[in-house]
Amino acid sequence: MVSNSSTGPLVVVIGPPGAGKSTVAKRLAARLDVEWHDTDEAIEQAQDRTISEIFIDEGEPYFRAIERTEVARALEAFDGVLSLGGGAPMDPQTQALLKGHTVVFLAVTIADAARRVGFDRTRPLLMVNPRAQWTAMMNERRPTYERLATLRVDTAGRKPAAVVDEIVARLQELEQQEDQS
Ligand SMILES: Nc1ncnc2c1ncn2[C@@H]1O[C@H](COP(=O)(O)OP(=O)(O)O)[C@@H](O)[C@H]1O
Ligand SMILES: O=C(O)C1=C[C@@H](OP(=O)(O)O)[C@@H](O)[C@H](O)C1
Ligand SMILES: [Mg+2]
After folding, report:
1. Which EC number(s) does UniProt give (predicted)?
2. 21 lines ligand 2 (CB under 6 A)
3. What structural domains and CATH numbers belong to the chain?
């Protein structure tokens, strides 16, 4: 059984756009019989507009500010499986708040990310030259994702159910190691 011995989310899921964070976090929550919360979804509901509309209407700095606040609130108050937007872990305040949490980094290649996301217009940072943007973004972000991660799970060529299976197994291993120490 994967249990939550501290306050805050049971698991926080991070990674680049197209890694499957929202999809996998939702299924993982169902498997663990806990709630799922996605910071992008919460922002869209609170603002009553899409992430793309927020970027276009207000600009990225505005989005990052509300994202920082929403992530801090969720890390404090929510105790299920939490998925963040791909850029959220780049914020220094968020990095500090993630310390001590169980963070799962979903890794993905450009080939799989492109296939999954299709690079449509729902991701505002990938509207112009999406492949080059995604690759540059990933090169810049990868060290941060790796540094913050408790677990790194490769999603390349794997269906969400297989990714969830691996996360559950590795969380159980972690828990056993902690029980023994
Ligand atoms: N492991 C996977 N294999 C194939 N498709 C996936 C996988 N994970 C997610 N998807 C699909 O990829 C798209 C993007 O997934 P999403 O969860 O929104 O990613 P993220 O939140 O990391 O940007 C969705 O259409 C989803 O159904
Ligand atoms: O990588 C990013 O900076 C972003 C990723 C998106 O979330 P997903 O990673 O869930 O697509 C969303 O938060 C926004 O478009 C910005
Ligand atoms: Mg998402």
Report:
1. 2.7.1.71
2. yes
3. 11-175 (3.40.50.300)
